[in-house]
């Protein structure tokens, strides 16, 4: 590809051709690069406009660290549940026929994008205080799912709600890897005398591990970045980082912490970037084995 | 090492309304290499997979060394198999792939045995490479080494060369033949390439619609096909009209012996192009229609009245056989089959 | 007959249906609950399909719906105008820039929307200064938001055809660059352009973060607002919006699926 590009004849000087890309680059600069720089630079700017580490240092405040911790727990747990559920579903579909597979993957494509306000309201209608399931359980089994406190608006509730888009996302990203497992490998294994257990532990397991891990990381980043669902569900307090940023943006600025929101935003970007970097490394390994 | 005999007995298998195996009987002698040859969908691969235990049969038995293995799962049948392509485990090196089956069996001296096998297939220096770092031909060699490393009772080759280039294909099939002779493992080789089957096999079984149409040595299958199907599938044939009288058929004035006698009267004989001689002769009944140079030999198409005859001639003859040349056509007196 | 293979198939079937049934319940239950919840008041659905009455009763909701539809349409147009010519042009004339363009297009994947809002706030101060505070100005941010998805769709479409050869063939017949792009390349990536547009519409209809934090309105913002006053109605609108997204994306994926099969 690259060598071809170098050899391509240029009929006109390059400058003219570059003109064609000006609108794109200008637009991206204004609405993507500048906002990114605003966050990065703002994180290191004091209220007087000079360079300051106060905002970054403020990230070590207990309430911010707690929020980061909860964000990470929420993302990790929902990613893990989503990964396991999604992988089981993917395996079930690989052994299934074409029609079921097409219907389920299409539905997953929709549900993976299904976040935000509508998802929050769906769960309110299901297991909210007057939700369908809550009421039904109380009426028919005299079971109160909130006898120990209303957990829907806290971390356990967020994990459950996030699972709803994590499982479909896992299905979409993991299915290609499972499809990459060739039936010949299982058959070759059997011919060589392997049991089903040996096949999974020595061949399929190691082959799928990078893809599984990578997909889980992607799910982590997905949950970590999510804002709308939590915003619609949690109206009091700011247990996770995106909600802390909301607080910083909407509430009155605490003296000396004008740019704290930017520092938190930068923290989020760094976490997501690291996770996505690891993901693309694992993805490359998967492409080599199962491509 | 000596091989064991394999016996497929009345195997039946249907997919929907298609009979993939229709009471297939096949005996493979110990140490023998049998090639199953046939068009796609004739059941040859199904036969191999039923023998491997990768496919259930609806009926019939599989005997290996006199033991009934029909109910055994694939992993307890002791068979080495080479697939069409991509069967190496991509996360293991060539050597680790070869060691895989040995380790499962808890054999001692595993690396030594693996090195021996890689040497046998001529890849001793490639043990540390991963499958994606090797060519298709090398991968198939490793697959062969892996299958043979466990000293299987039976070696199964499922179109192992069909994904390779022509040149590598020819090279590797010679090598498979050499290694199989050396190791002496009873082998079933499935292919749709007649040239390949004739080149490697001790006996060739031509399959059609789930049955064996003919099982014979390569020379017999080629020279004395029992049916038009076999004659057609194994090599190119002329279909020439003639008249049967007793054990011979008269084709364009020449009497040719029949492989199997047919009813007297009009019939179509199947005659190989290389059994046809074309000689320039001013008073000949034939006219050269076209001639094409194919390398050491060339192909000439001659019209004799209404009949088209394809002949294979030495390329040195070609200059004398320009289109329009008057020629005589003669047939070698080898037995021919009838198109029924 | 032993049927070793058949036994395994049976085991797989049991596993498959167990997984599908368990997850099916998990995924269908909230939808069923929404339906049940939104029909507790029998007037909700009739009101929802009666537009004049709806916009009378819930003016904020009506405004949100209209805003979202306008935003979706405008974002799709802006995305196509910005991305399609650039993607084609870069492939044809500036292959060395391809990696940079791809990097920029995929960058929003690593920048959460909530972070983008933080950085966009000062930019939008200028936007408001020049263009006013209309909700339609969100289109600028949304175009960035959909960039990764739209780029992937269009790039896949361009990869499937040999753009260079097509362009060379057209130019050897005397076509100018504009003709090459509009009349040769574009018709060949029609389905990719269509799926990029579909994705854009679906994403914009579901957007909440940026609209809410930049104090503008759209469908999701108005649903959230409505949730505080009328729970039943907000759930009904949520369900309707979800069904709309379902239909939209189902159409998209089925179109994509049938294309793959015909190959």
From TrEMBL, chain A:
| Keywords annotated in UniProt | Cell membrane, Membrane, Transmembrane, Transmembrane helix, Transport
**Topology with regard to the membrane?**
Multi-pass membrane protein
ABC transmembrane type-1 domain location: 68-281
GO BP field: transmembrane transport
Location in or out of the cell: Cell membrane
Main subcellular localization, coarse class? membrane
Domain of life, per the record?
Bacteria
- What GO CC terms are in its UniProt record? plasma membrane
Q: Where do the TM regions start and end?
A: 21-45, 72-94, 114-137, 157-178, 207-228, 263-282
Which InterPro entries does the record match to this protein? MetI-like (IPR000515), MetI-like_sf (IPR035906)
What PROSITE patterns does the annotation carry? ABC_TM1
Against PANTHER family, the record matches this protein to: INNER MEMBRANE ABC TRANSPORTER PERMEASE PROTEIN YDCU-RELATED, INNER MEMBRANE ABC TRANSPORTER PERMEASE PROTEIN YDCU-RELATED-RELATED
Q: Which family would the database say this protein is a member of? A: Belongs to the binding-protein-dependent transport system permease family. CysTW subfamily.
This protein's name: ABC transporter permease
Question: What species was this sequence derived from?
Answer: Paractinoplanes toevensis
Automatic annotation (TrEMBL), chain B:
What Gene Ontology cellular-component terms does the record carry? ATP-binding cassette (ABC) transporter complex
Query: Which InterPro entries would you find in this protein's record?
Result: AAA+_ATPase, ABC_SmlMolc_Importer, ABC_transporter-like_ATP-bd, ABC_transporter-like_CS, Mo/tungstate-bd_C_term_dom, P-loop_NTPase, Transp-assoc_OB_typ2
PROSITE patterns associated with the record: ABC_TRANSPORTER_1 (PS00211), ABC_TRANSPORTER_2 (PS50893)
Q: Which UniProt keywords apply?
A: ATP-binding, Nucleotide-binding, Transport
The answer, when asked if Disulfide bond is one of the entry's keywords, is no
Q: This protein's superkingdom?
A: Bacteria
* GO function terms (MF aspect): ABC-type quaternary ammonium compound transporting activity; ATP binding; ATP hydrolysis activity
Q: Which SMART domains match?
A: AAA
Q: Which residues form the ABC transporter domain?
A: 6-234
EC class (word)? translocase
According to the UniProt entry, what is the EC number of this protein? 7.6.2.9
An example of a Pfam family matching this protein is TOBE_2
Annotated protein name in UniProt: ABC-type quaternary amine transporter
Which source organism? Paractinoplanes toevensis
UniProtKB/TrEMBL annotation, chain C:
Identify the residues that the record assigns to the ABC transmembrane type-1 domain, covering every copy. Answer: 65-252
Q: Which InterPro entries does this chain map to?
A: MetI-like, MetI-like_sf
Query: Which coarse location class describes where this protein primarily resides?
Result: membrane
Keyword Transport on entry: yes
Q: What does the record say about its membrane topology?
A: Multi-pass membrane protein
Record's Gene Ontology CC terms?
A: plasma membrane
Tell me, what is an example of a GO biological process annotation in this record?
transmembrane transport
Q: Which residues cross the membrane?
A: 14-35, 72-92, 104-124, 130-151, 192-214, 234-255
List the keywords (alphabetical).
Cell inner membrane, Cell membrane, Membrane, Transmembrane, Transmembrane helix, Transport
A Pfam family cross-referenced in the UniProt record is BPD_transp_1
* PROSITE patterns the UniProt entry points to: ABC_TM1
- Superkingdom, according to UniProt? Bacteria
Where located? Cell inner membrane; Cell membrane
- SUPFAM superfamilies assigned: MetI-like
Provide the family line: Belongs to the binding-protein-dependent transport system permease family.
By what name is this protein known? Answer: ABC transporter permease
């Amino acid at each position: 590809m690259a060598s071809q590009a170098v050899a391509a004849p240029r009929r006109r000087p390059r400058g003219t051709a570059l003109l064609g890309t000006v609108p794109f680059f200008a637009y991206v600069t204004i609405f993507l690069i500048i906002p990114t720089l605003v966050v990065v630079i703002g994180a290191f700017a004091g209220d007087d406009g000079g360079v300051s580490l106060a905002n970054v240092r403020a990230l070590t405040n207990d309430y911010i660290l707690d929020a980061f911790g909860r964000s990470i727990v929420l993302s990790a747990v929902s990613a893990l549940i989503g990964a396991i559920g999604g992988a089981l579903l993917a395996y079930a579909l690989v052994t299934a026929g074409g029609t079921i597979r097409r219907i389920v993957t299409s539905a997953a494509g929709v549900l993976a994008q299904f976040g935000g306000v509508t998802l929050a309201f769906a769960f309110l209608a299901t297991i909210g205080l007057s939700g369908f399931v809550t009421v039904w359980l109380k009426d028919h089994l005299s079971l109160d799912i909130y006898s120990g406190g209303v957990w829907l608006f806290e971390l356990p509730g967020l994990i459950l709600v996030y699972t709803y888009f994590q499982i479909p996302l896992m299905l979409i990203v993991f299915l290609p890897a499972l499809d990459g497992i060739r039936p010949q490998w299982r058959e070759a294994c059997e011919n060589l005398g392997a049991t089903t257990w040996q096949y999974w532990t020595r061949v399929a397991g190691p082959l799928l591990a990078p893809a599984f891990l990578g997909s889980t990381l992607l799910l982590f980043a997905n949950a970590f970045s999510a804002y709308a669902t939590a915003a619609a569900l949690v109206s009091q307090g700011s247990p996770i980082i995106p909600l802390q940023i909301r607080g910083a943006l909407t509430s009155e600025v605490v003296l000396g912490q004008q740019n704290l929101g930017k520092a938190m935003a930068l923290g989020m970007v760094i976490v997501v970037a690291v996770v996505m970097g690891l993901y693309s490394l694992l993805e490359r390994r998967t492409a080599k084995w199962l491509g | 090492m000596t091989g064991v005999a394999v016996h497929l007995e009345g195997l039946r298998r249907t997919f929907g309304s298609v009979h993939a195996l229709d009471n297939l009987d096949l005996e493979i002698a110990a140490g023998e290499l049998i090639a199953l040859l046939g068009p796609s969908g004739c059941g040859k691969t199904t036969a191999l997979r039923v023998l491997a235990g990768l496919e259930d049969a609806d009926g019939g038995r599989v005997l290996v060394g006199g033991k009934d293995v029909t109910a055994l799962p694939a992993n307890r049948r002791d068979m080495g198999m080479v697939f069409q392509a991509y069967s190496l485990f991509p996360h293991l090196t060539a050597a680790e792939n070869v060691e895989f089956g040995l380790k499962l069996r808890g054999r001692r001296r595993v690396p030594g045995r693996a090195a021996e096998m890689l040497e046998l297939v001529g890849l001793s220096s490639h043990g540390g490479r991963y499958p994606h770092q090797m060519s298709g031909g090398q991968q198939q060699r490793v697959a062969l080494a892996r299958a043979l490393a466990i000293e299987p009772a039976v070696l199964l080759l499922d179109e192992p060369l069909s994904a390779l280039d022509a040149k590598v294909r020819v090279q590797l099939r010679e090598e498979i033949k050499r290694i199989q002779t050396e190791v002496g493992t009873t082998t079933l080789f499935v292919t749709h390439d007649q040239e390949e089957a004739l080149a490697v096999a001790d006996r060739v079984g031509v399959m059609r619609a789930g049955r064996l149409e003919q099982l014979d040595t390569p020379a017999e299958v080629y020279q004395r096909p029992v049916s038009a199907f076999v004659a057609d599938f194994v090599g190119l044939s002329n279909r020439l009209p003639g008249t049967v009288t007793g054990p011979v058929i008269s084709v364009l004035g020449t009497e040719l012996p029949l492989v199997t006698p047919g009813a007297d009267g009009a019939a179509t004989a199947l005659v190989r192009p290389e059994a046809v001689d074309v000689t320039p002769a001013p008073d000949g009944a034939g006219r050269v229609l076209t001639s094409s140079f194919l390398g050491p030999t060339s192909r000439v198409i001659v019209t004799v009245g209404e009949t088209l005859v394809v002949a294979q001639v030495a390329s040195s003859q070609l200059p004398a056989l320009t289109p329009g040349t008057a020629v005589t056509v003669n047939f070698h007196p080898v037995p021919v089959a009838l198109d029924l | 007959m032993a049927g070793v293979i058949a036994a395994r198939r049976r085991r797989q079937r049991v596993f498959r249906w167990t997984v599908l049934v368990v997850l099916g319940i998990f995924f269908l239950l909230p939808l069923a609950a929404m339906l049940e919840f939104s029909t507790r008041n029998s007037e909700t659905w009739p009101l929802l399909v009666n537009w004049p009455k709806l916009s009378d009763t819930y003016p904020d909701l009506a405004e949100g719906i209209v805003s979202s539809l306008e935003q979706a349409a405008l974002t799709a147009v802006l995305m196509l105008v910005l991305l399609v010519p650039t993607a084609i042009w870069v492939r044809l004339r500036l292959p060395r820039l391809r990696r940079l363009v791809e990097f920029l297009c995929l960058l929003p994947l690593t920048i959460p929307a909530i972070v983008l809002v933080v950085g966009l706030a000062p930019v939008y101060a200028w936007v408001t200064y020049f263009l006013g505070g209309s909700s339609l100005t969100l289109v600028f941010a949304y175009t960035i938001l959909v960039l990764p998805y739209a780029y992937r769709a269009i790039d896949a479409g361009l990869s499937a055809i040999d753009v260079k050869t097509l362009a060379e063939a057209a130019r050897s017949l005397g076509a100018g660059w504009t003709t090459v792009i509009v009349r040769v390349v574009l018709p060949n990536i029609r389905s990719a352009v269509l799926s990029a547009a579909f994705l854009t519409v679906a994403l914009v209809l579901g957007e909440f973060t940026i609209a809410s934090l930049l104090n503008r309105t759209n469908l999701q913002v108005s649903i959230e607002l409505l949730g505080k006053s009328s729970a039943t109605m907000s759930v009904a609108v949520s369900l309707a919006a979800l069904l709309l997204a379902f239909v939209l994306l189902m159409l998209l994926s089925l179109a994509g699926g049938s294309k793959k099969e015909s190959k």
